[in-house]
Design a protein that fits this description.
Rossmann fold; alpha+beta; OB fold (Dihydrolipoamide Acetyltransferase, E2P); binds adenosine-5'-triphosphate; six-stranded mixed sheet; ten-stranded antiparallel sheet; binds magnesium ion; 23% helix
Length: 374
């Protein structure tokens, strides 16, 4: 039997060009859920797709899988334009929450079904191997009706993986697993992905999951990709205010400021240094991440040397602490991460007066109108 590329899992480039989807239903206004997406994903790369509910993530995956028609634009896997191919001919494995298992079949039969339909070799061995790696050997004899939602989800994931598809699309694949299992399955997913080289898109709402899995992250909002880059790029140089706000935990503080020589003034709290090349006398939105700010000895501050603040609350989370600060003349609180591992250091307390400093390249500035990074 000749083995096709679809069965060997040969890594393939996945390219989306100007991809659009407008939903039309009788008696309803047409709704444009995806508004022109370009993504160029390297063979064997793992991309995490992030974005708020309703931004078009599932719609995008369904178009790639062939489960939804494309309104405009092109989808290419390798050198082939796949827009006109039926789902089964695209070489795409999918694990969607709504992608039902066959109720009359056992888990083993569910996993074997797609392989048998493709006349694959060693079906039983492949099913056993994937079941073991996803911690579900004991489920093989059960039927879907007798599985918990977390177990069903692992079966759906195994079914997508057992084929070694060149392209793998996963929509919240681990959302129903408990915390410990989620981390274990997440690691195994990454190992399998590296072993077999499926070009992969994973939708997730969990930022830690995205960071742990992704080679690159695509951040989506309102039907458009807002930024596509490595986790470091997205975190360190957010393209706009939306991305800055969406990526990072705890969330970035976004406060109004006004630039002056080499610094940005924030309320009546003082000023922080800014990167070179920023125009003076401009109203801006200043983004300050908890991880990038630090507290210095309290006291008077020189111009551009820091922000005076009062501690509203301090939370000791053992690995680190979070100080929530009020800045005079600023209505948004500022959260600063504090090292709590240094022994005998006095930790901040409510009511303390502190000074906040940040390095210039950690002070993110955005245009208040367009939201774009300055
Ligand atoms: N069949 C449909 N007909 C009309 N509108 C739809 C249809 N499917 C999805 N939509 C709309 O398209 C938009 C994008 O939906 P989609 O399911 O892609 O979002 P999502 O990013 O996956 O969100 P979530 O994180 O909640 O899963 C939503 O506003 C949704 O209401
Ligand atoms: Mg969705």
């Amino acid at each position: 039997m000749t083995v096709t590329a679809t069965e060997t899992g040969t890594a393939q480039r996945l390219r989306l060009s100007s991809l659009r989807k407008t939903y039309t239903a009788r008696g309803r206004e047409p709704f444009e859920a995806v508004k022109g997406i370009d993504l160029d994903i390297e063979p064997g790369e793992l991309v995490a797709l992030l974005g708020p509910s309703g931004c078009g993530k599932t719609t995008t995956l369904r178009m790639i899988a062939g489960l939804e028609t494309v309104t405009a634009g092109e989808i290419k896997i390798g050198d082939r334009s796949v827009g006109d191919l039926p789902p089964g001919k695209r070489g795409v494995g999918v694990g969607f929450e709504s992608y039902a298992l066959y109720p009359p079949l056992t888990v083993r039969e569910n996993l074997a079904y797609g392989l048998k339909a493709r006349r694959a070799k060693d079906v039983a061995q492949r099913v056993d191997a994937i079941a073991e790696r996803l911690e579900m050997t004991e489920l093989l004899g059960l039927r879907p009706a007798n599985l918990s939602s977390g177990q069903k989800q692992r079966v759906a994931l195994a079914r997508a993986l057992v084929r070694n598809p060149p392209v793998l699309l996963l929509d919240e694949p681990l959302s129903h697993l408990d915390a410990a299992q989620r981390q274990r399955v997440r690691r195994e997913l990454k190992v399998l992905q590296r072993e077999f080289g499926y070009t992969t898109i994973v939708v997730t709402h969990d930022q830690q999951e995205a960071l742990s899995l992704a080679d690159r992250m695509a951040v989506m909002d309102a039907g458009l990709i807002q930024q596509f880059g490595t986790p470091d790029e997205v975190f360190d140089r957010p393209a706009n205010r939306f991305v800055a706000d969406f990526v990072g935990e705890p969330a970035i503080a976004l406060v109004d400021g006004r630039t002056e020589a080499g610094a940005v003034r924030i309320g009546d709290a003082g000023a922080l240094p800014v990167p070179d090349g920023i125009a003076n006398g401009k109203d801006v939105v200043v983004g300050l991440r908890p991880q990038d700010c630090h507290l210095t000895e309290s006291g008077a501050t020189e111009s551009g040397a820091g922000l005076r603040a009062t501690v509203r609350v301090f939370e000791n989370l053992l690995e680190f602490g979070l100080a929530t600060l009020d800045l005079p003349g600023v209505d948004v609180p500022l959260v600063v991460q504090v090292d709590v591992t240094v022994r005998d250091r006095r930790l901040p307390e409510r009511g303390d007066t502190v000074t906040v400093a940040a390095a210039p390249d950690r002070v993110h500035l955005f245009d208040p109108t367009s939201g774009e990074r300055l």
